[in-house]
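Dear support,

We are seeing what looks like truncated structure output for some complexes. This example has three components. We would appreciate it if you could run it in full and send us the complete C-alpha cell output so we can diff it against ours.
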Amino acid sequence: METIFFTIVAAVTVLSGIMVVTCRNPINSALSLILTFFCIATLYVTLDAPFMAAVQVLVYAGAIMVLIVFVIMLLNIRSEVGRRYTHAGIIGTVVGFLMLVLTFNFLNNSSLTGAKGLITTDVINKIGHTELIARSMFTDFLLPFEITSILLLVAIIGAVILSKKKI
Amino acid sequence: MLSLHSYLILSAILFSIGAIGVLIRRNAIVIFMCVELMLNSVNLTFIAFSKYLGNMDGQIFVFFVMTVAAAEAAVGLALMIAFYKNRESIDVEDLNLMKW
Amino acid sequence: MGFELFGLPMIYYIAMIVKVLVVFVFVLLTVAYATYAERKIIGHMQVRLGPMRTGWHGLLQPIADGIKLFFKEEIVPSQSDKFAFLLAPIIALIPAFIGFAVIPFGDTIEVMGYKIPLQIAAFYDTAAGKVVDLNVGVLYILALASVGVYGIVLAGWASNSKYSLLGGLRSSAQMISYELAAGLAIISVFMMSESLSLQKIVADQAGFGWYAFKQPLAFILFFICSIAEINRTPFDLPEAETELVSGFCTEYSSMKYAMFFMAEYANMVTVCAVTTTLFLGGWHGPGFLPGWVWFIAKVYFLIFVCMWIRATYPRYRYDQLMRLGWKVFLPLTLLNIVVTGLIAR
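Here is the complete output from our reference environment:
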C-alpha cells in the first residue's frame, strides 16, 4: 500500500519536474513546479512531518510561487517563440545525467551509519510534531533562528531598493 | 515500510532535473524555478534522513532552507524586474554587459 | 461491524464518507442560498423586494440561476491559453471546499457503540480516550487560502485580455498582502491555546471563554483581512464592475463563470466557519441545543455580517487598500502579538 502510494507520487513528482524544465511557456513551468511542491508535501506527510508539509505548501506553493507567477504576469512573458535552450544544452544535459549516475553509484554502496535518535513515529504522535519542532528550534537552534530573521530583513531592504524606479 | 533509499533516489533525480534546467534554459525565471526545485529535493533528503535517524535537526534545517529560499525569491525577482526594465528581456544570454 | 480494513473498524470509513457527503451537500446548499439571501438582504436594506417571481418570495431563484448559467453558451477566447483557462475555475473552486475537512462542527456523537467526532479529518482514539485530529489544522487552512489565489491569477492571465490581466494582478497583490495580516492575526490565538489543532482550540473556548472576548483586536483584524482575501466588497477590486468590466472573469461564461461565483460564496462560508471556530467558540453554546446547531447559527450570522458590510460600505480605492493592509493592519497585528506575549501568561 505504502509502496504503491510512494511510486505514484514519485512518478508524478518526476514527471512534473521534467515539465518544469521542458515547458515552452513559463506559466506552465510554474504550474508544474507547484504540482511538484504539492507532491513533495504529500511525501513529507508520509515521512511523519505534517508540520513541514503544511509549511511547504504555505511557503513554497503559497508565497514563493505566487510571487513568481506574479512577476511572469507583470512582465507579460508569453511562450518563447525562439530558442528556449542555451548553446550549452547538450553538454548541460550530459553533465546532469553524469551527476545522477554518480549519485546512484554513491547510494548503492551506502548504508545508514549514524546513531538512531529518540524521535520515532509514536513519540511524534504522542507529543505532536509542532511541539517537537518548536522545542528544538527555540533551544538548540535559537541563534540560527535569529540570524535568519536578520537575513529576511536584509532581503526585504534589498528587494525594496532593487525595485525602485532608478537604480 | 519504505527504505530510505527510495526517498534518496527520488530526491537525486529531482536534483539532477533541477541542475539540468539551470544549465540549459535561457529564461531567467525558469532558471530560478529550477533552483527552487533543487532546494526542494535537498529538503526532501533532509526530512527523509530526519525520519530514519529519529532526529529533529534535519527538519529545522529545512526550515532555514525555506527562509533562505523566500529571501532569494524576493531579491531574485526584484533583480529580474530591474533587469527587464533595462533590457526588455529576461534571457540570460542578454546578460552580457560585463563581457568584452 | 466486526470487519476491519487497515487496522481500523469499518464504521470509521463509513462515518468518514457520510460526514464528507453531508458536509459537502450542506455547503453546496448554503452556497446556493447565500446568493439568494444576499440579494434579498441587500434588497430589503435598500427598500426593495429582491427576487420575487420564481417560487414563493423567489425561493427557487438559485435553481433558476443555476439552470440559466448551465445552458449558456460556453465561450473560450481564441487567443487564450486553453489549458490554463480551463484549469483556473477548478483551482479556484477546490480549495474553497476542502477547507471544511478540518473544521469541527459539533461535539462527539455515539453511533452503535463507536464515538464519532463531528469533524471530517478526525477520529476517536479509544486507547487514548480523546479525539485525534490534524495536528496542524490551522496551517492547513492558511495553506489552502494561499493556494486559492492561483485560480484568480491564472484566470486573469489565461484570458489574454487587459481587464482580466489587471484584475488578476490586483487580486494577487491584494491576496498576498492580506493573507500576511490574516496569518499574523491568528498567531495570538495560537499563543493563547498553545496548539495548532482546531479541536484543541475549540475545546479551550468552552463556557463562553471565546477568543473574540480575549482577543477582540485579533478577531476584528482577522475577519476584515479574510473579507479582503476572498475579494468581497468593500475590497472587491479584482472584479470592480465599474472600472474593470468584471475583472478576472470578464472572458468567462456559462458553467466556468458559475464556478467562480460558487468559489466566491464557498470561500465566504469557509472564512465564516474558520472565524467561528477560531474566535466564536466553534460549536460551543448554551446546552439546550446540540453543538452543530450553534455552529451553523454562528456561521450564518457571520455570513449575514458579510452581506451587511457589502450593503453599507463603498469600494476602496486600490492605493487605499494597499495602504490599509501594509501600514495599518500589519503593524496592528504585530503589536497584538507583542501585547499578547507580554500579558497572557
